[in-house]
Write a structure and sequence with these properties.
Blueprint (H helix, E strand, L loop, with lengths): L26 H28 L6 H27 L5 H4 L3 H35 L4 H30 L4 H28 L2 H18 L1
Helix pairs in contact: 1-2, 1-6, 2-6, 4-5, 5-6
Length: 221
């Protein structure tokens, strides 16, 4: 039963994501950009999964993990980007809560627990890795290890850094549009870069890709 003292109330049944609604002249450009990123991300991650399934020398725990990561990124991208292409990005704080300041405080607290703490733990692990690399006697070995470690660290820092900025800083008029750009980085660019950083730069994966390309070209002839 409705309480008559509460008066008339309106229930929100759905949200319309307006995204970069303040930049209507960029809507077509953003749509095309996100579409290209979506196709590239899906193709790259699906390619990694197929290569790992087809070639037996990639059937080991490390590539099993990378295959699961690619599957996760494929599902994640398929959930986010099609909706983004339909309406682009938008913040829902002012629509979903009568008190946006309370919502921002909740987001800040949750970010401390679920973002800052994992980021610091990950950063400490990379520091330990770097210390171990510095102990490698071979200069070539150190350079190779640093090349791999630095690329991973860049992606991790970019992902956590943009997330922390988006959720831990208050949404002011000055930062509102910039936060939309930041959200694009951790929502779109990280899944795009993961296949390049973790798999396609790997020697064994590149060899498998080379074999697959040769079979494809040979089959066409």
């Amino acid at each position: 039963m409705m309480n008559p003292e509460q008066g008339n109330q309106t229930s929100i049944a759905e949200f319309i994501l307006l995204g970069f609604g303040t930049l209507p002249e960029l809507q077509i450009l953003l749509f095309l950009l996100f579409l290209v990123i979506y196709i590239t991300t899906m193709a790259g991650n699906i390619l990694i999964v197929v290569l790992i399934l087809v070639y037996r020398h990639l059937h080991n725990p490390m590539y099993f993990f990378l295959g699961n990561l690619s599957c996760l990124e494929t599902c994640y991208t398929s959930t986010i980007l099609p909706s983004m292409l339909d309406g682009l990005l938008s913040a829902l704080i002012n629509l979903s809560c009568n008190d946006p300041h309370l919502m921002e405080m909740l987001a800040f607290t949750l970010s401390l627990i679920f973002l800052l703490v994992p980021f610091l733990i990950t950063l400490m692990s990379y520091i330990c890795i770097i210390v171990t690399i510095l102990r490698i006697p071979s200069t070539t070995g150190r350079q190779k290890a640093f090349s791999t470690c630095s690329s991973h660290l860049i992606v991790v820092t970019m992902y956590y850094g943009t997330l922390l900025f988006a959720y831990m800083f208050p949404t002011t008029n000055t930062l509102r549009d910039f936060k939309k750009v930041v959200s694009v980085i951790y929502t779109i660019l990280t899944p795009l870069l993961n296949p390049l950083i973790y798999s396609l730069r790997n020697k064994e994966v590149k060899e498998a890709l080379r074999k697959a390309s040769s079979k494809f070209m040979f089959g066409r002839h």
